């Protein structure tokens, strides 16, 4: 189910070309088309693209508020990525979950697959909420 509260694309998102396709409490999903511009010199998606997508879904998973006027943001404190295989499809699909935390920090886990369900990478991270939230 696509949330109506998905924010408009930000500059880095437009550069990579991914789209957030689902965003709800404690969860986020996005998809990235395979394009030559995101490839490394071997023609496969650069590991930094994998890391960016996994980082993004985990960060968003902890920032859902349920209100378009109450935007919550977080910054990454730590990020661990395990690269498992190469994608075979035309899309990268990242899913992330908030798995715990408190008032100022939270923890996330994520996975990256292609559209055929082949697991490409996994991630985990620690995030800190940024100050300046409208409800603070």
Topology readout:
Layout: H1 11-16, E1 19-24, E2 27-33, H2 47-61, E3 74-83, E4 91-101, E5 105-114, E6 119-129
Antiparallel strand pairs: 1-2, 2-4, 3-6, 4-5, 5-6
Oligomer type: single chain
Classify the fold: give the CATH topology: Thiol Ester Dehydrase, Chain A
Which overall shape is indicated by the principal axes computed on the Cα atoms? globular
CATH class: Alpha Beta
Gross CATH architecture: Roll
Structure annotation, total helices: 2
Separation of the first and last Cα atoms: 29 Å
Number of strands: 6
Description:
The structure is a single chain. By secondary structure, this protein is α+β, with helices and mostly antiparallel strands. 15% of the residues lie in helices and 40% in strands. It is built from 2 helices and 6 strands.
Report a brief summary of the structure.
The chain is an alpha+beta fold and 136 residues long.
Labels describing this entry:
Thiol Ester Dehydrase, Chain A; 15% helix; single chain; globular; 40% strand; alpha+beta; 136 residues; 6 strands; 6-stranded antiparallel β-sheet
